Amino acid sequence: EVQLVESGGGLVQPGGSLRLSCAASGFTFSSYWMSWVRQAPGKGLEWVANIKQDGSEKYYVDSVKGRFTISRDNAKNSLYLQMNSLRAEDTAVYYCARDPSPAASYYGMDVWGQGTTVTVSS
Amino acid sequence: QSVLTQPPSVSEAPRQRVTISCSGSSSNIGNNAVNWYQQLPGKAPKLLIYYDDLLPSGVSDRFSGSKSGTSASLAISGLQSEDEADYYCAAWDDSLNDWVFGGGTKLTVL
């Protein structure tokens, strides 16, 4: 079964750090771009970042540039999101998703995890 | 303010047909395919339509998509109560080098 499972969410104070993980199974992880997408409480979906198969290309939404870092370990079939200098507005459910790549965007993000909740509050 | 524009909500009676619009620009919808996602209450998003009008395996053919220029639409026919969900359009934006989403449309089946 193709599956993505996120972990690492929790409550963190403003200015703090958190590292999210996403464990992939059921497909050849190293063959796919991957994305993080978040959803603030009661709000819509917001793409956060994506990463190429070998980690050589990464893109970020402007609001997280310089604060968040996406990475992956293909040997462990895992995707990560290092979040630093967290702000209240980063509070959201964070989903990892299998990304078709910018060049093949027409395929859409076809596999999603169940999400992990990040709350930034003092 | 989302890059892609959707109506916040739509509603229609069971067994009827509803459409949800998605408006963008030349750097996203005008130059790239549109994908649609369905998010049932409390669940993760699910790919509903890809490449403007194609259905992933297992998606009911009551759902259909279309695109013209810088706008796209999702149509749902034969509405059922189980279709109550939030629907999002999305596309890659060549200028931003970002995935951009619509703000989402909440569908209520009356």
Characterise this structure.
The complex is a heterodimer of chains A (122) and B (110). In chain A, the strands form two sheets. In chain A, strands 2, 4, 5, 6, 9, 10 and 11 form a seven-stranded mixed beta sheet that branches. In chain A, a hairpin with a 4-residue loop joins strand 7 (68-73) and strand 8 (78-83). Chain A has strands spanning 3-7, 10-12, 18-25, 33-39, 45-51, 58-60, 68-73, 78-83, 92-99, 111-112, 116-120. Chain A has no helices and eleven strands. Chain A is globular. By secondary structure, chain A is an all-beta fold. In chain B, 41% of the residues are buried. Chain B has no helices and nine strands. Chain B has 110 residues and is mostly beta strands. Chain B is 0% helix and 45% strand. The A-B interface holds A 35, 37, 44-47, 50, 59, 61, 95, 97, 99, 102, 105-110, 112-115 and B 2, 32-33, 35, 37, 39, 44-47, 49-52, 56, 86, 88, 90-92, 97-104.
